[in-house]
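Handout, page 2. Input:
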Amino acid sequence: MSGYDYNALLSIFYISYILFEIPSNIMCKWVGPGWFIPTISLGFGIVSVCTAFVHNFAEAAGVRFLLGIFEAGMMPGIAYYLSRWYRRSELTFRLSLYIVMAPMAGAFGGLLASGILTLPHFGGVYGWRMIFAIEGIITIGLSVMRFARPGIHASSDPVLTSFAFSPASSPSPTDPRPRDGSPKRKKTSPSPASSRSASPPPRSSIAWTPRSSSGASSAP
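Output:
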């Protein structure tokens, strides 16, 4: 590469990232995060391995464009996935943890890359190509483990069969706490008509007629 080729490769990634972010959100909603996130992770790992075998600018630009497609749905997919488990008041802290992990992953990724470069070779791959090959294989392995997880096909909603949560923490329709966006239940007071209809009948009493002024009873 020469001139601005390296800068162009970096920019190609963000072009596909921006273009496919909204379609990825729609696909995640339609397919379900239990299928969507492992699928794009698997695609990202495969493209990373392919990056180790590029030889010219056109091939490198192609794999960078594909990386942007698979990366576009990761952050929105994880946010949607977590929103299925946590309420709005609980979601902010969980998402902040994920965002904080991004620079930490970059720091440890640099250490991992330094360790990989100390290897003489990885199969028939040498130099910087080993970084993409090894890290891509690790990503593929983790994605395949998710697909091999028993129970992923057990529910039409894959989020309910996640390995990350125990059955005790899965959503329950009998949860007394209101969900975000759900209408609050209002206490209704009975109407006067229903109160009269529900009241018991009056007690029966014996008719009594007072005496007249002449002292004779008007009762028979």
